[in-house]
Amino acid sequence: MADEFLLRMEGISKLFPGVVALDGVDLEVRPGTVHALTGENGAGKSTLMKVLIGMYQEDSGTITFEGKQVKIPDTKTGLGLGISMIHQELSYVPELTVAENIYLGREPRGKLGLVSHEQMSNDAKALFERWGIKINPNEQMKHLSVAQAQMVEIAKAISFDSRLIIMDEPTSAMTEHEVEHLYAMIAQLKDNGVSVIYITHKLDEVFKISDYVTVFRDGKLVKMLPAAELDRNKLINLMVGRELTHLFPKEHAEIGEVVLEVKNLNRGELVQDVSFELRRGEILGLAGLMGAGRTEVLETVFGIMKAESGEIVVDGKTRKITQPKDAIAANIGLLTEDRKQTGIMGVLSVRDNMIVAALPKYSPKGMLQPKRIDDACEAQRKALAVKTPSLNQLIENLSGGNQQKVLISRWLLTLPEILMIDEPTRGVDVGAKSEIHRLMSMLAQQNKAILMVSSEMPEVLGMSDRILVMHEGRITGELSREDATQEKIMQLATGTTQEA
Amino acid sequence: MSAPPGSQITPPDERRQKFDAAAFAKKYLIFLILLAFVALLSVMTKGTFLQVENLNNVVVQSAPIGIIALGMMLAIITKGIDLSVGATVALAAVVASSLAQISNGIGAMYPGLVLPVIVPVLVGLVVGAMVGFVNGFLVAKFHIAPFIATLGMMTAARGLALIYTDGRPVSRLASGFNYLGQGSLLSIPVPIWLFAICAAITYVILRRTRFGRHVYAIGGNEQAARVSGINISRVQIGIYTLIGLLAGLAGIILAGRIGSGNPQLGTGIELDAITAAVIGGTSFNGGVGTVWGTIVGALILGIINNGLDLMNVSPFMQMVVKGVIIVLAIIMDERKNR
Fold first, then answer.
1. Which of A197, A388, B49, B209 has the most CB atoms less than 10 A away?
2. Coil, strand or helix: which one is A52?
3. Contacts of residue B209 in chain A, CB cutoff 8 Å?
4. pTM
5. Using only C-alpha atoms, what is the Rg of chain A?
């Protein structure tokens, strides 16, 4: 073990049919360090990590771990070596308990070789205590929040006595507080000599926790360097390979008359007495912590969830909206938060995904007009610069940012007057992000009204003309663009009583 | 509607794909398999298989299964299934037959009743569609899993067919009715015409109508389809009603072919239809399935049956072979999705 590196990957290449996913990539990780891995979506970060844990096989290159050259043909070998990964999309068994999930496949045995639930539960409890995790190990997994489930996954990774833990955007569903906890855990891991490879899009995170930073672009390594030698602009330039003038280019748009009025909307715990107005040309930000009810407000307005009471007025007319169809008929669009669950239709083509919400406009009397559909989709593809070889490509083969663009097109094709966008740029790379922001500005300039939910403070502050803040199902305050600051939003979002 | 939002964007990848043998083989795999089977059987039967009479026979045998498989494909595309088609075949067949009997014959259910052939045919179709509608209604409005809803219907509809006929076949049918199962038009058997017409209509529905896009969208992602304004219930009811209609037609053809409406008709045909759809590339994961694939799937199934007959393979062995083929088809489907 005369090696100063815990892990050295050299000249790793990986080909997928038609794509060079990794092109001779190197990566070196020192013991007890946090190594941030960043770059646009589809740059090859996840692919490289999947090679490392044995999910994919490299086509060429070598991996040296703890001074020995290794082959990792499957994930079991990876775990055996001490490499574990926390995936972005969590995979657990919802019906089993937290402890059962942690020890899945390696359950402690008691008498007669049967699983000892008691020991499993105690082991999990001890593990949680050691790492300051406040979750009941006997709780069923399905009752946990996304962030809690994430914590369990992290604890599970630790429980393998891993030497190297890979975290793929672990904080994307976490609250501020949980993020802090995670950072503390990472610090503790470092003290124990464990290394962490941390995939992230959030630049703040890169600077906050990492010792080294590696930037990927188009399947190639761009740069590997100590975090101390970097600043934000330098990092962004490395990631996109071009100067970015504005991250959040909200441009001026004429704000017109009220187009949407929501009055005293109620729906369960998370939508209580919500009222607001939205004007043409305006981007209205809806801020708040995870679980504050922002998404639920959008879903209730859109008819995905039925309102218990309240009134929705579009262009001066009260609308009865009990299903999404009604909302679409009222010229409202909703780009949902969870692209995979409620957005893309993975095995369908880009064309089918684009046109689906606007079909009534393109199929009078129920018969499709293929030529018009093709033209409309092609125009969208060009306008939004969707990177796809053709409209026939399956959407699941596109990167996250391009999928998001297709979904935006889906709504633009319905010619909405009101567009509600839930987390417009979640899981989207920096380049696509700024394109989406520009597009939102442009829609505002075209007199559309936009209601945006975002968990990213800079996005909320940068894009919104006006900001509503929610806390526990209620709107706790309204801030103008000029008045809004992170602190004020936080106060309202945490329900701090003091006037903002 | 929206101007180009970025000059800093590299132009989309416009690479023209060169001929890719692997991709071609994958896309047309099902046709290649069909050709391989035809070639294999032609050789092994020393040409008997290729005789026009035999080929006609194969397609006629495949037609009722294929007609039902078209509907089954729609259900499977939306991650559903219809187990009740066999029972629907029987119910439609006995009801239609009872109205198509030679009225003064022995054992006529309605002595003295004389109807033009079109009436029993339409009634049979309506009976099938009604069964399907109930299935669709249960699935859409009560959110019962299609497997369960149609499992219930499978038993109930078969029971109704038995009650209606007292468990006896309804025989001595008008020749005009039997024509649908036995006749020929332009020297092509009528069942083949009917299969072709059903396939063409299903093709148009799937490729050229809003309803067809909705079917794929629901299979691709039901939640996303709902958010996109699709009325899921209506599409589901439409699908199952259409399946019932197709099963009703298959029942009429089968009754016409043997000249009798038997309440035991169509037993097990649901499995053949599922097999045909799956061999044809319809995916149980939803969102994937084509009319061409399903036609070929039905033909492959028919060819296997016929070929094994010609080679004097015992019917018991034939079941084993079919079972293996179903599993192989699913394995291939899974691998394609990797």
1. A197
2. helix
3. 363, 366-368
4. 0.75
5. 24
